[in-house]
TrEMBL record:
It comes from Candidatus Avidehalobacter gallistercoris. It is found in: Cytoplasm. This is Ribose-phosphate pyrophosphokinase. Residues 6-122 form the Ribose-phosphate pyrophosphokinase N-terminal domain. Signal peptide: none annotated. D-ribose 5-phosphate binds at R196, D220, D224, T225, A226, G227, T228. Its cofactor is Mg(2+). It is an enzyme of class 2 (transferase). InterPro entries: Pribosyltran_N (IPR029099), PRTase-like (IPR029057), PRTase_dom (IPR000836), Rib-P_diPkinase (IPR005946), Rib-P_diPkinase_bac (IPR037515). ATP binds at D39, G40, E41, R98, Q99. Mg(2+) binds at H132, D171. The keyword Transferase applies. Belongs to the ribose-phosphate pyrophosphokinase family. Class I subfamily.
Amino acid sequence: MSGSALKIFTGNANPALATEIANYLQIKLGSAKVSRFKDGEVRLEIGESVRGNDVFIIQSTCTPVNESLMELLIMVDAMKRASASSVTAVIPYYGYARQERKQKARDPISAKLVANLLTAAGADRMVAVDLHTNAIQGFFDIPVDHLPAVPILAEYYKRKNIDNLVVASPDIGGVTRARNLAERLNCSLAIIDKRRPEPNKSEVMGVIGDVSGKNVIMVDDMIDTAGTISQGANFLRDQAGANEVYACCTHAIFTPPALERINASALKEVLTTNTIPLRPEICGESNKIQTVSIAPLLSETILRIHENMSVSRLFD
């Protein structure tokens, strides 16, 4: 790929992140206008030639999810039709990832459908950060670079220098991620025993591990309505005897009343990345939220893909 020019484009999902990536790479953000026809259809105007170029489209499929996805599909298709040498879909937050298997009869596997759509549109490669489950990588028939955000989150906490620390997983499914963070912070691990009777509703049953008198960091891939993380924080402090409780996640979906729950909870601070833009007009505001940028990681990944270098070396 290194013989072709590198170009970065973005839809409307997260233009600030795309601009940050372009600035990091010291290139100009590609000229493309994504608007709407009067009936609501996506209208795309590419303002420059991409013939023979390595094109990277930065687009999280976040709220409004279907609009963001459709913009991405149309952009991928248009770039291929404009004779781009390669088109990489850089999807910091991959929507529909929570529908990756059948929970009950006749459920869709929407994560696989989205993978099929991206491949059919002409994507040559996909880059994502902290997919909801690792198995989604196998849904694609094209190369997938799956990037972990834990190293970035860990660096933040190292600078913060919290003592007497324990990392907690909010459920059994997140143990690997929590163990990774705990190893980087050289501390012990705890697991919250959670039951989820229905979507966006959870119940804390207990905690596995010693958190009494400890400062605890809960880590998850995403926070949606913040029910799990808020209940977990309250349980850790009020019933398990934890001292201060922090939380971190890669994807801040923050569907209302997420920030209300966070503000009212035992959480001292919530750390997240900018894979999804925080929109106060939608999710509200909270002085407990801190953000670290994912742009350097994505920029280095894009550069390595463009120059045919190993991406995994970033995490050695």
